[in-house]
Amino acid sequence: MSNVRIGRLGDEHFQESMKLAQFAFQYTRTEQQLEEIRVRIEEEPSERWGVFVDGQLAAQAAVLELSTYIGGKVFAMGGVAAVSTWPEHRRQGYVAKMLVHLLERMRERGQTVSFLSPFAFAFYRKYGWETYTEHKTYTIQTRQLPVRKPYKGRFERLYDYNSLQALYETYASKFNGTLRRSELWWKHRIPMRKPGQIAVYRDSQGEAQGYLIYEVKEQQLTVHEFVYLTSEAYEAIWSFIGQHDSMIEKVTMTVPMNDRLTDMIADPRIKQEIVPYFMARIVDVEAFLGAYPFLASGSADRVCLDITDEHAPWNNGCFELLIGESGQAEAKRLTGERPVEETVKMGIGTLTSMLLSYRNASDLSFLNRIGGDMEAINRLQNRIPERMTYLPDFF
C-alpha cells in the first residue's frame, strides 16, 4: 500500500513543483522567469501544500493570503491557486483530501472566505465553492466607439503602478469580491498581467478621478484596467480611448456586469460576451456572519440557518443568526432539535452566493437552492446589502 501524506512545500520542492505546474497548465518558463517566480513566492505571504505518494509529489495547491471587499468591509480571504495533479495520480481522491486540509488551515488562520479560479465549475461545486462573479468582454470596432467629447480635466501619463493604489482601492471598495491589493501585489502581479501605458485623468481641480492601463499592438487597443470614480472621468477616459482611432481597428476590454457603455453609444449592438469567472466559498460560517455588514433596520431580526456543508463539519448544522438594528450580527451553532419556524435551509455555496449578492433569494428559490420559512427568507434578504460582484484580477 502506498504511503500518502500532505505536507508543506518549501524551497527544496520548488523545481519539482514548477515541473508539475508547467505540465498541468501547459506553459513553459525560462530560467530567468522561474527565478522571478521563486522570488515572488518568497515575498508574497502564502502557504503551499503538496500530496506526497511514497515520497514523490503527486498533487499540489497554494493558499494566498489575500483580502477582499464585501459590503465595503475588508475580509481576510484565502486565494486557492495552482491546484494540479500528475495524471497517474488523478481520480485517487488526493485533491479532495487536500482541499479539506486547506479549508481547515484557512479557518485556523482566520480566512473566513475563499476564492478560486476553477478549471471546472462542477468539480469545485462539489466541495462547496460556488460561482460568485462574472464579467462582460467587449470587442468594439473603432467606428462604434463613443463620440469624443471635450473634458474639463487633463490626462497625465505615468510610469509607476504604485501611484494608482489609492484610486483603485476607492473604486474596488464599491464592489463585492474585489481584491484589496497589497504593495507586493502591485509590485509582482499587476506589471506582469497588465503591461503597457498608464494614463491618469485629473479633473479641473487637479484631483485624480480615474485611470486607464492599456496597450496598443497590431492595430488593437487592449484595455487592462479601466477605473473611474465619477461619470466625468468615465466619459473622459472613453474620449481618450477614441483619440487612438487613427492607430487602431478595434478595442477589447473586460468590464463589470453593470457597465454603462451601451447606454452612451449610438449603436449598442457591439460584440459582448458574458464570462463566468471566479468561485467563492465561506470557510467559517460563524466568524463570517459575525463580521458581515448587514444593513441597518428599524428592528432586530432572528433567523435560523440550516446549512449543509459536507467538507467543513464546523459549518454543517443549524445556526441562530441575530442581526441587530445597526446591522451588527452574531451567529451561534444550535445543539439539539432544530427549530421549524424561522428556519432557512441551503448549502454552503448558496449561502456564499447570497451574501456576496451574486444571487438573491428570488433567484435561489427559483433554482430550488433555498428553502424553509418564506417570511424568514425575505427578512434575511432585506438585510443583505446589494452590490455588484467584480474581480479585475487573477491568481
Write the layout of secondary structure elements.
Elements: E1 4-8, H1 14-25, H2 31-43, E2 46-53, E3 56-70, E4 73-85, H3 94-108, E5 113-116, H4 121-125, E6 130-131, E7 134-141, E8 154-158, H5 165-172, H6 183-193, E9 197-202, E10 208-217, E11 220-228, H7 231-242, E12 250-255, E13 271-276, E14 279-282, H8 285-291, E15 301-308, E16 317-323, E17 329-333, E18 343-347, H9 348-355, H10 361-366, E19 370-372, H11 374-382
Parallel strand pairs: 4-5, 11-12, 15-18
Antiparallel strand pairs: 1-2, 2-3, 3-4, 5-14, 6-14, 7-12, 7-13, 8-9, 9-10, 10-11, 15-16, 16-17, 18-19
Protein name: GNAT family N-acetyltransferase
Pfam families: Acetyltransf_17 (PF17668), Acetyltransf_9 (PF13527), SCP2_2 (PF13530)
Keywords: Transferase
Structural features, described:
The structure is a single chain. With 395 residues, this protein is α+β, with helices and mostly antiparallel strands. It has 3 domains: 4-111, 3-Layer(aba) Sandwich (Aminopeptidase), CATH 3.40.630.30; 136-275, Aminopeptidase (3-Layer(aba) Sandwich), CATH 3.40.630.30; 284-382, Nonspecific Lipid-transfer Protein, Chain A, CATH 3.30.1050.10. The chain has helices spanning 14-25, 31-43, 94-108, 121-125, 165-172, 183-193, 231-242, 285-291, 348-355, 361-366, 374-382; strands at residues 4-8, 46-53, 56-70, 73-85, 113-116, 130-131, 134-141, 154-158, 197-202, 208-217, 220-228, 250-255, 271-276, 279-282, 301-308, 317-323, 329-333, 343-347, 370-372. The strands form 3 sheets. The protein has a 7-stranded mixed beta sheet, with helices on both faces. Strands 8-9-10-11-12-7-13 form a 7-stranded mixed beta sheet. Strands 17-16-15-18-19 form a 5-stranded mixed beta sheet. It is globular. The model has no long low-confidence stretch (mean pLDDT 97).
